[in-house]
Amino acid sequence: MIRVALDAMGADGGSEPLVEGAAQISLEDTPLQVVLVGDKDALTTLLKRHRHDSTRIEFVHAPHHVRMADKPAVTLDRLPDCSILRAAELVAAGGADVLVSAGNTGAVIHAGARSFARLDGVRRVALCAVHPTIEPHGPRGDPFGLMLDVGATLECSAEELAAFARMGSCYSRLVSHIDAPRVALLSNGREATKGTESVVGAHDLLRAKGDLNFTGNIEGLDVPLGTADVVVCEGFIGNIVLKMLEGVADAALALARHAHAQKLRYRLGLALLSGGLRRVRELTDWKQYGGAPILGFDYPVIKAHGRSNARAIRNALRLATKTVQHKLVDELKKTLAP
Amino acid sequence: MIRVALDAMGADGGSEPLVEGAAQISLEDTPLQVVLVGDKDALTTLLKRHRHDSTRIEFVHAPHHVRMADKPAVTLDRLPDCSILRAAELVAAGGADVLVSAGNTGAVIHAGARSFARLDGVRRVALCAVHPTIEPHGPRGDPFGLMLDVGATLECSAEELAAFARMGSCYSRLVSHIDAPRVALLSNGREATKGTESVVGAHDLLRAKGDLNFTGNIEGLDVPLGTADVVVCEGFIGNIVLKMLEGVADAALALARHAHAQKLRYRLGLALLSGGLRRVRELTDWKQYGGAPILGFDYPVIKAHGRSNARAIRNALRLATKTVQHKLVDELKKTLAP
Asked: Residue B244: which of A151, A244, A259 has the nearest Cβ?
């Protein structure tokens, strides 16, 4: 049985979608035990509202939690018994195999840093995200690419970017079942000499070692295309790019509407298309995907979107199970070995 | 009469669109004299194909030119009589008031650096670009926002970003006729403390001086929305963001097509919409806009897109005329005064 510590507090929609997701998955035929970490009374009350298998859900009480607007480091200092710290400590103590949270991202990273060690060769951890692409990825035609870092480490050295490339490749191979994921550095041009000092340095390091399917630099245009399976960049850039992608499908749509609201045939076209556009929005909706890992700790951590619904939480719990089944951390250690 | 030095060589489509654009504008009622700089025989032959006013077009011969794939610095060393250097030298010597090129961007920046001085308070120049936004800008409802830097200076200090903010605001005020352009720093969060060291430092500098309509930090989402009139960032990020925007409208469209190619009503919807989508593509098509300035030299420089057609060149020449009429360089000096 795989034990998942689920930080059940502090998501945008409160604890309801988290508890509902846990309840749903407890009825599925998966080798999964969920430990709900948070206000035990409140969580128990919520759980009663949903059909579930009570033998597969446990509780660990944590009286406090970090809110989305809280400053992570100071809040963790102030609330040592908050749900995310308790959940991370549970994993570190062997009481669970993997940590899942839909709460304050900074708090998840800080709680990991306080409770876990970093893997050898990892100086900074990376927050991953998935983004929709035109080209499918891997044998299952996954419509998402992986990007890292998207905000854990704003500025990176060449060595740090190279470690991100290795970890992203390993995760993509295990979880997306891509044999040799195409790994690329996001830069301002395809040539090896293009980019900031750290990007040029990382390019040289990855070329020299030659252990990955490193396809070189890609440009901004390639991100929505999906030319690479794993896009590597500094957290500052990844964060900006990811948030732009979140908004840009709506932007294109609004532009089309604005330009042609007056013409009947365009209005008609938009009406007929609305189902298709909803599907585009679904594809660009992170809630559907469930989550993405924080890579670099000696325990697996899945960060679900703060706005996750029950279905997204269920997907995040499945993803967490996979990271344990596929021995993600052991594989990361092998990948990072000098 | 305003004299524009037009580097008439080295664009993606050769000299034809450049000469045609110059021919067209020579017939317009604008106070403009175009100096075509390049292979005089070839340009003369091309010009004969288009109706023009020969009293308003002159030639300065330059036997060589920089190609798109050439390394800028070494090629300028090797070809001191290339068209972009000759054109910049013509401006520096007083033979023309403003420089326009649709050639190799790096070569234009290097030629400027060799021929012009930088304005006081400017350590690095900025390449601007316009990008389509949902919200219109200024009194004329311009559907484009201004972004700088997009590739001239990959990494910037806080002082350099602050200087870019001042110059971008000044340009937007003069050319887009926006009284107090909303200037923002692109970052990973809205709070003043979010961002890399240089972004946080620039935020403090701009807040402290208080001379601009500085609206603080914006996030990736705000770029397609158009929340700011002037978006300020390091060149590495600006380049990635801009290229992503170029590709992303097509990406959304392909995604919609892919998901629903099988359904008749979606196919029909797309067919009806195709005019509207063409209009979106027009809006995201830089060729329509003409060009954007390189700011920081003591002479005005307009960089037109390499794929400019005759209409785009005509627009770039009009834009160049405006920078002289509105005394852009004098205004930049005032804006940059300590």
From this structure: A244
- Rounded to two decimals, the ipTM of the complex is 0.85
Show pLDDT as tens, one digit a residue, over chain A (338 residues).
999 999 999 999 899 999 999 999 999 999 999 999 999 999 999 999 999 999 999 999 999 999 999 999 999 999 999 999 999 999 999 999 999 999 999 999 999 999 999 999 999 999 999 887 878 888 888 878 999 999 999 999 999 999 999 999 999 999 999 999 999 999 999 999 999 999 999 999 999 999 999 999 999 989 988 899 999 999 999 999 988 887 665 655 555 555 444 455 555 555 544 554 555 555 555 555 678 999 999 999 999 988 899 999 999 999 999 999 999 999 999 999 98
CATH number at residue A155: 3.40.718.10
What does the alpha-carbon distance between residue B261 and residue B249 come to, in Å, rounded to a whole number? 18
Q: Is residue A266 part of a domain?
A: no
Dihedral angle of Cα A264, A266, A271, A273, to the nearest 10 degrees: 160
In the stretch 143-202 of chain A, residues with CB closer than 8 A to chain B read 143, 151, 154-155, 186-188, 195-197, 199
Tell me the torsion sign for CA atoms B282, B287, B288, B289. positive
B134, B187, B194, B278, best to mutate vs chain A, most A CBs in 10 Å: B134
Rounded (5°) CA angle A238-A304-A319: 105
Q: How many domains is chain B built from?
A: 3
For the beta sheet containing B32-38, the strands, ordered from the edge strand earlier in sequence to the opposite edge, are: B57-61, B32-38, B2-7, B98-101, B301-303, B292-295, B126-137, B142-148, B230-232, B182-186, B213-218
In this structure, are B199 and B228 located in the same domain?
A: yes
Q: Are residues A184 and A84 in the same domain?
A: no
Tens digit of pLDDT for each residue in B197-237? 999 999 999 999 999 999 999 999 899 888 999 999 999 99
Residue at A228 is within a domain: yes
| B261 and B216 housed in the same domain | no
In a domain, A264, yes or no: no
Answer whether A236 sits within 8 Å of B266, measured CB to CB: no
Q: Which two tokens stand for residue B120?
A: 């006081």
Residues B215 and B316 in one domain: no
User: A74 at the B interface (CB within 8 A)?
Assistant: no
Determine how many CB atoms are found less than 10 A away from the CB of residue B251: 24
Residue B19 lies inside a defined structural domain of this protein: yes
Which of B255, B263, B274, B284 is the best residue to mutate to test the A interface, defined by the most A CB atoms within 10 Å of its own CB? Answer: B255
Tell me: do B131 and B244 sit in the same domain: yes
Same domain for A140 and A103:
no
Closest partner residue to B240 (CB to CB) among A188, A249, A279 is A188
Structural domain boundaries, residue B272: 250-279
